[in-house]
Structure formats: structure tokens, C-alpha cells
């Protein structure tokens, strides 16, 4: 009978690990969009723009960046 090597890591992950991983991605999504929008709002006020051009632009860029990061994370974990 073959015995498994105790130094070999277990491939089976706890379901709590995946819940925590994906909930952290959701928190990153909200935080990134919020911070980018807030910084854009501050920049719009500082530059004196009448419309929230930088707030919208930075919000969309933050959203695109976090979606790309989520895509990379999901593809790395699922071969």
C-alpha cells in the first residue's frame, strides 16, 4: 500500500477559503471604485470643473482595473 507523503500539501480546499477569497474580491471592487471616484471628485473640485469629468473617468478606470484583476484571479485558480 502506498502512503501519501505528509509534506505534500492537500489539494482539497475548504469551502470557507473560496468564500473568503471571492468576498475579498467584492470588497476590493467596492473600495477601488469608491476611492477612485472620491479622488476624482477631489480633483474636479481642485481644478474647478463644472462637471464631474475626472470622477467619472477615474471611477470607470478603477472599475476596469478591478474587473481585469478579478479575471486574472479566477483564471489563475481554475486551470
Please sum up the structure shown.
This protein has 79 residues and is mostly helical. Helix content is 73%, strand content 0%.
Helix content: over 70%
- Summed up, the domain count is 1
| Element pattern in H and E | HH
The largest β sheet comes out as: none
Instruction: Provide the residue-averaged pLDDT.
Output: 83
How would you portray this structure in words?
The protein has one domain (15-77). Helix 1 (15-47) runs antiparallel to helix 2. It has 2 helices and no strands. The chain starts with 14 loop residues before the first helix and ends with a helix. The longest helix has 33 residues, at 15-47. The radius of gyration is 20 Å and the shape is elongated. The chain is an all-alpha fold and 79 residues long. It is 73% helix and 0% strand.
What would the keywords be for this entry?
79 residues, mainly alpha, 2 helices, 0% strand
Topology, element by element:
Blueprint: H1 15-47, H2 53-77
